[in-house]
Design a protein that fits this description.
The protein has 136 residues and is α/β, with parallel strands linked by helices. The protein has helices at 6-19, 59-72, 92-97; strands spanning 2-4, 25-33, 36-45, 75-83, 104-109, 117-124, 127-131, 133-135. The protein has an eight-stranded mixed β-sheet. A hairpin with a 2-residue loop joins strand 6 and strand 7 (127-131). The longest helix is centred in the first third of the chain and has 14 residues, at 6-19. The radius of gyration is 14 Å and the shape is globular.
Length: 136
């Protein structure tokens, strides 16, 4: 299970909407308590691909985020990105590029901007499994 507070969700949503028509992306950091991942900080990064179909995190921003996590005493939990025109599920490219099977991959669908959908997934090779996500 992964837990996130409402303000972090709103931060992701606002950034994703501001980046339309392109995908937005970022990292999540936090702590692990038993089987639960608790998001403590959301990082908004630049999609250097400037594409509505895929994303690449800005390497300098990614490094700065990881350094900030270390300074804050939290760990990388995974990443997030938006799907401006497709459902909240991993695309074949998302699966192919998933480098860490222990990471959480959050995908925000903006297909219906009035009803955005955020889901979290565990990705193992070509398989993905929905992870319980709680927004408090």
């Amino acid at each position: 299970m992964i837990k996130m507070n409402q303000s972090d969700y709103e931060k992701i949503l606002a950034h994703a909407l501001s980046e339309l028509p392109n995908e937005a992306c970022g990292l999540i950091g936090g702590v692990i308590e038993g089987d639960n991942k608790i998001v403590k900080k959301v990082y908004l990064l630049t999609n250097i691909d400037k594409s509505n179909e895929h994303f690449s995190l800005d390497p300098k921003e990614q490094l700065a985020a990881v350094k900030d996590m270390r300074a804050e005493g939290i760990i990388p939990l995974g990443n997030w990105h938006s799907h401006p025109e497709s459902p909240s599920r991993p695309s074949e490219e998302d699966k192919r590029l998933a480098y860490d099977s222990s990471a959480s991959y959050l995908i925000l669908s903006l297909m219906d901007k009035n009803s955005p959908v955020l889901n979290s997934f565990k990705i193992h090779g070509s398989d993905s499994e929905k992870e319980e996500l709680i927004i408090e």
